[in-house]
Amino acid sequence: xxxxxxxxxxxxxxxxxxxxxxxxxxxxxxxxxxxxxxxxxxxxxxxxxxxxxxxxxxxxxxxxxxxxxxxxxxxxxxxxxxxxxxxxxxxxxxxxxxxxxxxxxxxxxxxxxxxxxxxxxxxxxxxxxxxxxxxxxxxxxxxxxxxxxxxxxxxxxxxxxxxxxxxxxxxxxxxxxxxxxxxxxxxxxxxxxxxxxxx
Length: 199
Fold this sequence. Notes:
The protein has about 200 residues and is mainly beta. Helices cover about 5% and strands about 45% of the residues. The chain has one helix spanning about 5-10, and strands at about 15-25, 30-45, 70-75, 80-85, 90, 95-100, 105-110, 115-130, 130-135, 140, 145-150, 150-155, 165, 175, 180-185, 185-190. Strands 2, 6, 8, 9 and 12 form a 5-stranded antiparallel β-sheet that branches. Strands 1-7-3 form a 3-stranded mixed β-sheet, with no helix packed on it. Strands 4-5 form a two-stranded antiparallel sheet. The model has no long low-confidence stretch (mean pLDDT about 80).
């Protein structure tokens, strides 16, 4: 039976991955947050075909100011920062978010792919006094709140998989047949007759 340690080692987000971060200005002058930039992009990864996987939830920090949503399609020929419209990528992102010293704003960032599996690193581009400052985005955190990794991975939308696993009420990963999985868009649901009642 696969374990939680197995899941942490083998999972890959499907269709989209991302994070929510709070950016605080520490400069004396106004800083502008304008775009995203990718680094070390490798879209030659094999598309997962062995296990049904789900993207992580992108949390909300609950700040007073409305969060800023940005997105980027990683496997595009020329990835550009885009807006987010519902669950899809919108047009090019053209806003500039101004932060005075001490101001903070939440940024929710989504990375997608449509045809290839990719690994990459990403920066949030900030400008102050005519200079560009890349803020390296962590892909995961350690228990103490420090970044654990800066490398993201994301795979194309779902396709038929050799194996399907669901989370059982006893916190176990249980293999189920394809006939017990129903897809709504990119969201899987367990439809079998067992006692597995949530993902």
